[in-house]
User: Fold this.
Amino acid sequence: MESTGKVKTAASHLSPLFAGATAGLSVDVTLYPLDTLKTRLQSQQGFYKAGLLTVATSSMPTTALFFMSYEATKSVFQPMVLPHYAPLVHMLAASIGETLACLIRVPTEIAKQRKQTYTGTEKRSSIRILLHAFKTEGLRKGVYRGFLSTVVRDLPFSFIELPLWELLKTSIRDRNDGNISSFQSAMCGSLAGGLAAAATTPLDLAKTRIMLAEDYACTRKLRIKPVLSDIYGQAGVRGLFAGAAPRTTAFMLGGFVFFGVYEHSKGIFDRYFDR
Assistant:
């Protein structure tokens, strides 16, 4: 009995790891063309090749790390608070998950977006791009360029998306005897993802411009506020929301796939270890 309990305890930690990896791979591979279109609209150069393999191979550890830390934080803090404070726990869990996930996400974004906007004829692998960035610009200004702006972009997104997703799921459970299907969770994720994406488009735009800038060391404007001010001065509010349509569409579709696959995969994993 003791060994069975240990297996179930381990499974409770591995379940979000497995489900997050599956969900991340599914949504990134499915919706990558829309992300490429969004990057093209936000950049000033155009795009050449997508770098789908980079995203596909990195999405699994990124989302697995996010959901493992998200669920672990929830399990620690949620029993300590009253139900109406649950959104605060979800925000805390999301912030921890996003910060850790960015350790993988930022180098991936650097390689991916430079592939998307590369106009030369020489083939460049993602590893080669990152090695070149490290050699010429260093770890912080090269491989992890835009780390802070990515965290700043992703935290507000998660502060909106995750609590809203949890709130919508709770509302459905309350009306359905505590039950929710993967499809219903997917619909909740679609709505939450679309709203969060639309609201945070300017932050995503700033992150894209910072990562794609050619002369990081000599350019003094590569901070979120100056970049957004410069864009606003050139193109107004419309410029701040460049790429909003494909971004919002991608996250609505992505939220549906991501959270639907997550709940379904988690359910399969949990049922297997409950046998």
Notes: The first helix runs from residue 2 to 42. The mean pLDDT is 79. The chain has one domain: 2-274. The two ends are 13 Å apart (CA to CA).
